[in-house]
Amino acid sequence: MDAIVKARGLCRRYGRFWALRDLDWELHSGEAVALLGANGAGKTTLLSMLCTLARPSDGDLQLMGMDPRKEPARVRAQIGYVAHHTLLDDALTARENLRYYGGLFDLDRLEERITRRLTQMGLIERDADQVEGFSRGMRQRLSLARALLHDPRLLVLDEPFTGLDAPGCRDLARALSSEKENGCAIVLATHQLAEVLPWCDRVLVLNLGRKVEEDRADARDAIGWGAHLTTIAAGGSNPAEVRR
Amino acid sequence: MSFWRVVRAVLARDVLAEWRRKDIFTTFVMFGLLTVVVFVFAFDPTRHERQDVVPGALWTAFFFAGILGLNRSAGRDSQDEFLHGMITSPADRGALYLGKLTAHLVFMGVGELVILALSIVFFDLDGRHLTPAFFAIMILGTIGYLAVGTVFAVVGQKTRLQEVMLPVLLLPVLTPLLMAAVEGTAIILTPGANEGLGHWIQLMAAFDVMFMTAGFLLYGLVLED
Amino acid sequence: MKVIDKILLGLSATGMIALMYLVFMVVPADRAQGIVQKVFYVHVPAAWVAFTAFGVTGFFGLRYLMTRDLRFDRLAASSAEVGVYYITMVLITGPLWAKPIWGIFWTWDLRLTTSFILWLLYLAYLILRRSVGDRERRAQLSAVVGLISFLDVPIVYMANRVRASQHPAPVVGGGEGSGLEPIMLFTLLFGLFVFSTTFVLLLRARNGQAALEDEIEQLYLQRD
Q: Which of B172, B178, B195 is CA-nearest to residue B141?
């Protein structure tokens, strides 16, 4: 299994404070990791470095075995990014949005890919409709279609379930676990533990910018993890203390 | 080649979105026209030779309206972090720049023609003056304007001052271009005088080449953090 | 204070005194323009420094873009902050010179116009720097803007040259090479030297201060 992500001593600062400190972590293909922690723990910071939106302030980061600073285009071609913002143009139709990204990623057989992903996300009926008229759930699904269009080896998701109703969450979770089956490496930050724990392999917990725990997802159930995270955020933030 | 594909993708998206929204174009034409009208009233036509004011009025209108247009365009891309989609893609940054520049050229070019047409009516311009040289100056001036403007518009969005930053940065840099455009247009509109036009056109061409190259190389650095 | 700064301070101080002595006591007044012409010995060196300082800003901005080393950004910023005073001096001494001799405070001739645009470019750069909070982003955006602004200066000069050739107007400062006696030339060159030395002194001082500011930020980081 190749290492999709290799982080050693990864750090990122914003002005006078460290958003992320000394992170050592690896992710392999076909692995799904849930990134957990309170708001401000450093999850978004880590994810933005993984999708090359931000540069590390210190430490070493390898993506797909490459240095994103030396080979940015090759690295980016293999990463799909989903965040709270859909990165879609409301005035364009679903298909036009995907054509735009298909052009940016220089994809072959573009129409085929678009049809395939739209069908997978249950949006094929609305492919010629402007995104403006889409519900939040539909937009998120289209955003995921956008992120998957180029068959990425790494999927980076920052709280993709926000604003989705229960069926929407389930559909999204199902789509993600099926990508994982296909060998995609997935890292996602979320508070929706129940949706992700069933199919995630591991859990990475951050607190105040540091890695506090890394464990198997099935070590606790959703409620167990919820309680555990609350404890961590409330004060047991010393990495040495918080061990199973 | 993937480079031109990116240029086409960016151009297609910008033009398509604008075709549906029409707000950059409308802003540009409305404000440009109003600027021309202000000139008409500010320079009392009974006291000044009307024609003397035309080159200055036109180019002032284009420059100021252009700022509003560029701010709308960059503002829209900044909204909801749309730029992140461009940044996280492998697309060549120079290609992104060319795509944006071309899209802006389309909007501003069409807008300028509209403003020009209306100015012909207001200023009672002689249509025979609209020679190829006249349009050459309009094209060279617009390209130079947008070569720098496309970059600076993104810079502005990343500062606290946002929309206000663009004119502060852009106008000082563009003064030689403005000078050349106005002087060149004045020479063309004045019957009989075609001296020195060549120098102005050369200057504008040099400006365009230099700053398009600079923009092409630097756009990526401005997009990313 | 480091040794080099002490030397620079000594050179600048004594040099400036010597320059003033030369200007007021030694150099003869210009035959045509009289004593007012002596502003020239401040106006020209100030312009020389102002234009060079902007080049320094552009150059170190480029170095920053190539290396992402904040040292270069500090130098670029410091050069701009010091240089803006020199260009302001040019814009003040210009009218001081023009008014008694030509009766006008200002004219849009080649040199004054170019100087004025340079002043605007400086201000835009400095306003930009103040409008960006994030340290690295400020360095990155300033470097790009500084570089583009610097590339613009020769074009501004050329545009004004073309215009000057088409619209004859009074030229503040006399034509090129209008008869400088040896002592005048010497004073001018000496002035260039003293102003340059002072610039380097001030640049180093401002840069040192900037380094301290960045160091303080680093110390905050090391808190935990």
A: B178
